[in-house]
């Protein structure tokens, strides 16, 4: 095999590996979690599927010179709206901890003043959805995840969305099920 053919084969192998597991640059986030690894424990109670949960203490810091408005489900909800997103590759259904929100429109977002830090304790539970036929979770319960908040530059339901990653997404963290279930 010629050196040119060897280099071509090597380039193709590297491209295939990159396509299978793309590198995602970590972000320096203003939304941070209290840990980088959590154990989801089985939750008590009945229901059609086995559920797991864990608590995350999330800190949101506003580094800007203006207030940031965090979306919340209802005008008096204590915590912001959030999502729990899968960050390792693309799998069917994404994160099983991604909540299903049924909210009312309002203009009473949570205000985080310039330079201020807000702390929320979030009770994460999953699976949020499952197959009605098989009773199997939709999404994965273990893996590399991150939180997402929904910040805005102004009050109003979905108004003035901020799309800067460091103001929306947390650091990555790993979730394992207790006893490897």
List the helices and strands and how they pair.
Blueprint: H1 3-20, E1 31-33, E2 37-42, E3 52-61, E4 68-70, E5 82-86, E6 110-112, E7 117-126, E8 143-149, E9 151-152, H2 165-168, E10 173-177
Parallel strand pairs: 2-10
Antiparallel strand pairs: 1-3, 2-3, 3-7, 4-6, 4-9, 5-8, 8-10
Describe this protein's structure.
The protein has 181 residues and is α+β, with helices and mostly antiparallel strands. The protein has one domain (25-180): Immunoglobulins (Immunoglobulin-like). 12% of the residues lie in helices and 30% in strands. The chain has two helices and ten strands, in the order αβββββββββαβ. Strands 1, 2, 3, 5, 7, 8 and 10 form a seven-stranded mixed beta sheet that branches. A three-stranded antiparallel beta sheet has the order 6-4-9, with no helix packed on it. The protein is globular, with a radius of gyration of 20 Å. The N and C termini lie far apart (48 Å). Residues 3-25 have low confidence and may be disordered.
Based on secondary structure, the structural category is alpha+beta
- Shape designation: globular
Could you give me the name of the CATH homologous superfamily?
A: Immunoglobulins
**Share of helix, binned:** 10-25%
Low confidence ranges: 3-25
Quote the beta fraction: 25-35%
Q: How many domains, in number, for the residues?
A: 1
Distance between the termini: 48 Å
Number of strands: 10
